[in-house]
């Protein structure tokens, strides 16, 4: 007698739970391609159509995949030059930079939400301040994210060694699977 249960999955069955996906966003084309890839491959129209109605306040909606878009603003840096005193910006300069960063982040996430709406996918957004590498990992753990999707800028070995790579750090430090998505050279927005 053959075992027919292996490899059989019933979509929408009681054992199937929602998948929490986080896409790390910045202003780069690579992060928007990562979102595009997630929307077209993990939130396909067939999957979205079979999911139950999702209300952001409805905690009983356990069959709906959840998408979170996160953007981390880096704090305003303080500069120290060798042989000179440290240069500290004034409070008004810091406030102006923070306001500009917030406006840019809001506009960028609005564009990302528009992409989600076109695919009929509801998403939550999150704007934070700190080191993007660490914040993405920390928030993913706090929100119990099942998968982090992040774009790859394709930095060379030398640039990556000096600047560090957010995607490289996240793949090595996140407590959940990480999908690094490289934008094809022929992709058009």
UniProtKB/TrEMBL annotation:
Pfam families: Usp. InterPro entries: Rossmann-like_a/b/a_fold, Universal_stress_UspA, UspA. SUPFAM superfamilies: Adenine nucleotide alpha hydrolases-like. Residues 20-182 form the UspA domain. PANTHER family: ADENINE NUCLEOTIDE ALPHA HYDROLASES-LIKE SUPERFAMILY PROTEIN. This is Universal stress protein A-like protein. It comes from Sesamum latifolium. The lineage of its organism: Eukaryota, Viridiplantae, Streptophyta, Embryophyta, Tracheophyta.
């Amino acid at each position: 007698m053959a075992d027919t249960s292996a490899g059989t999955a019933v979509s929408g069955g009681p054992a199937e739970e929602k998948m929490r996906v986080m896409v790390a966003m910045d202003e780069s084309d690579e992060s928007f391609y990562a979102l595009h890839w997630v929307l077209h491959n993990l939130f396909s129209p067939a999957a979205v159509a079979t999911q139950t109605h999702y209300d952001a306040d409805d905690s009983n909606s356990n069959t709906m995949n959840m998408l979170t878009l996160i953007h981390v603003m880096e704090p305003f840096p303080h500069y120290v030059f060798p042989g000179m005193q440290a240069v500290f910006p004034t409070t008004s300069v810091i406030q102006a930079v923070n306001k500009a960063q917030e406006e840019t982040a809001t506009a960028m996430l609005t564009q990302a939400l528009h992409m989600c709406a076109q695919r009929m996918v509801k998403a939550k957004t999150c704007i934070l301040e700190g080191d993007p590498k660490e914040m993405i990992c920390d928030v993913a753990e706090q929100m119990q994210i099942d998968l982090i999707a992040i774009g790859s800028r394709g930095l060379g070995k030398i640039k990556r060694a000096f600047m560090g790579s957010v995607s490289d750090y996240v793949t090595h430090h996140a407590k959940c699977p990480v999908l690094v998505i490289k934008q094809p050279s022929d992709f058009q927005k």
